[in-house]
Amino acid sequence: MLRPSDRGPGLLLGDRVELPDDVELGGHVVIHDGTRVGPGARIQDGAVLGKPVALGSRSKAPRDPVPPLEIGPGAVIAAGAVVVAGARIGAGAFVGDQAHVRERAAIGEESAIGRGSQVDFDVSVGARVRVQTGCYLAARSVVEDDVFVAPGVVTTNDKHAARHAADYELEGVLLRRASRIGGGAVLLPGVEVGEEALVAAGSVVTSDVAPRTVVMGVPARRVREVPEEDLLERFG
Predict the structure, then answer these.
(1) What gap in Å lies between CA 233 and CA 236, rounded to an integer?
(2) What are the tens digits of pLDDT across the range 4-37?
C-alpha cells in the first residue's frame, strides 16, 4: 500500500522499502512495496520504482511472482522512468528519462539505458553497455559487456509474429561483447552478433554475424573485417 512520505515532495512509499538517507529524491517519486534502493542512488522527478507487474489478458509473458526491485548503489533513475518489480539495476547504472525496464530484466554496472528505450522482460544487459535513445530490447535478449546500441535500434523475438502455438518459445537476440549496432538497425529473432562485430546503420540483420565482421544492407551482408585500430582494447 502506498503512503505519502515526508522524505521528498509528493513522495509515495510502499511497505518494506529500503531507502538509505543519502538517496537523492526528486518530486512525485513512487516507490512500491519491497523495493531496495542502494546508497547514493539518485531518483529523479516522477520516476516509478517497483511497479507491480501488469499483463494484458492475452499476454504470454510468465505470470509467476517476482522478487522486489533492486537498485544498486550510485545508480540513477531519471525523470519519468518506470522500473518494474523483479528487475535489477546495477551499481552506477543509468536509466534515462521515460525509459521502461520490465520484470526480471537485469542492467549491469555502469550501463546506460537511453531516453524512451524499452528493456523487456527477461533481458540481460551486461556491464558498461550503452543503449541510446528510443531503442527496444526484446524479451529474452542477452547483451554482453561493452556493447554499443545506437538510437532507434529494434530487436525482435517472435519468428511467427504471434501466429504460433501457446508453447512457442520466444527467441531474443544475442549481442556479444563489444559489438556495435548502428542507428535504426533491425535484428530478427534469434540472431547472434559476434564479439567486436559492427552492424551498419539501417541494416536488417536476418542471420548471425561473425566476430569482428562489418555487415550492412537489407538484408545485412558482410562487407569487411573490423580493423585492429577499431577494437575496444585500443580505447581502454
Answers:
(1) 5
(2) 999 999 999 999 999 999 999 999 999 999 999 9
Phi, psi of 83 (to 5 degrees): -120, 120
135-236 belongs to which CATH class? mainly beta
Question: Residue length, the chain?
Answer: 236
C-alpha distances in angstroms, 130 versus 13, 21, 27, 121?
A: 30, 29, 27, 18
Name the residues annotated as catalytic: 164
Please indicate, yes or no, whether the overall pTM of this predicted structure exceeds 0.70. yes
Q: Where are the domains of the chain?
A: 1-52+67-132, 135-236
% of the chain beyond a pLDDT of 70: 100
CB 47 within 8 A of CB 67: no
- The answer to whether residue 236 scores a pLDDT higher than 70 is no
| Residues ≥6 apart with Cβ < 8 Å to 181 | 147, 148, 149, 150, 153, 175, 187, 193, 199
Which residues, including other chains, have CB under 8 Å from residue 9's CB and lie 6 or more apart?
Answer: 27, 28
Contact yes or no for 202/217 (Cβ under 8 A):
no
**Matching fold, domains 1-52+67-132 and 135-236:** yes
What is the enclosing helix (H) or strand (E) of 86? none
**15 touches 5 (CB < 8 A):** no
Superfamily of domain 1-52+67-132 in CATH is: Hexapeptide repeat proteins (2.160.10.10)
